[in-house]
User: Which sequence fits this backbone?
């Protein structure tokens, strides 16, 4: 891609921040996977999921209890959209930074498909590639075939209903993953914020947490929003356009 002079200057400023940073992590949202063909949730695009569907009906305990078949059918429709989707240039650029931790709100596994080690991906909102028992005490969990996902069914361990292993509205984030993400953001020199509206809490609070502890913030998102307001450098292009150039030549890490 050919950058305009203003973006060239901002890209250079971002690279200068990275060159002075010892600990760098990425915090990503749906915009990271948009150019792989996966719909975002809140962008102005009319295809954004929450512009077409009611999140309380389809992504909450209340919605599942009211109509579990509708919820399962919707998630299996989404799983069908995921089948065959490939990582884009942004995922591959991040995977090239093998020492960097990836904190993500995405429920896909495109970062892992691109080559990021699974233990270096913190999935704050769970995984659409798995089902779990609706009974939180049971804790049974299964990988599903997204090309042929199972329908509504009973948990083989306790008999309650199985549901997608994602975090719904009103639910808590996975505690261990959330604690690790918070600790990491309190010890960074730079946080890359990629393709997120920064409106879903508590996850979006990681940006402010990092800044409060001295981190610089670089935001890459085609749509300006709450995240760009907090940026030291804002790059208003898609992640697939910007990240390969931004990260080229660096070996960035999140470890001490």
Assistant:
């Amino acid at each position: 891609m050919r950058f305009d002079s203003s973006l060239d200057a901002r890209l250079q400023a971002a690279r200068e921040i990275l060159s002075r940073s010892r600990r760098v992590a990425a915090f990503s949202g749906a915009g990271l996977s948009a150019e792989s063909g996966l719909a975002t949730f809140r962008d102005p695009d009319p295809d954004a999921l929450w512009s077409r569907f009611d999140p309380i009906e389809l992504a909450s305990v209340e919605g599942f209890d009211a109509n579990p078949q509708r919820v399962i059918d919707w998630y299996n429709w989404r799983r069908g959209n995921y089948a065959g989707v490939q990582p884009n240039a942004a995922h591959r650029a991040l995977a090239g930074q093998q020492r960097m931790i990836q904190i993500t709100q995405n429920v896909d596994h495109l970062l892992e498909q691109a080559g990021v080690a699974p233990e270096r991906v913190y999935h704050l909102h769970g995984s659409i590639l798995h089902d779990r028992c609706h009974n939180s005490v049971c804790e049974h969990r299964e990988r599903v075939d997204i090309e042929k996902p199972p329908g509504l069914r009973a948990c083989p361990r306790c008999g309650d209903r199985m549901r997608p292993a994602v975090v719904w509205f009103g639910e808590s984030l996975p505690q261990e993953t959330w604690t690790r993400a918070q600790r990491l953001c309190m010890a960074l020199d730079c946080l890359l914020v990629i393709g997120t509206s920064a409106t879903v809490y508590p996850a979006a609070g990681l940006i402010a947490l990092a800044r409060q502890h001295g981190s610089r913030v670089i935001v890459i998102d085609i749509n300006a929003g709450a995240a760009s307001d907090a940026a030291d450098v804002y790059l208003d292009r898609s992640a697939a356009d910007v990240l390969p150039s931004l990260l080229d030549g660096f070996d960035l890490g999140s470890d001490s």
User: Anything to note?
Assistant: Residues 46-51 have pLDDT under 50 and may be disordered. The chain has two domains: 1-38+86-125+173-256, 46-84+126-166. The beta strands are 24-28, 102-104, 121-123, 126-133, 141-143, 162-166, 190-194, 216-220, 233-235.
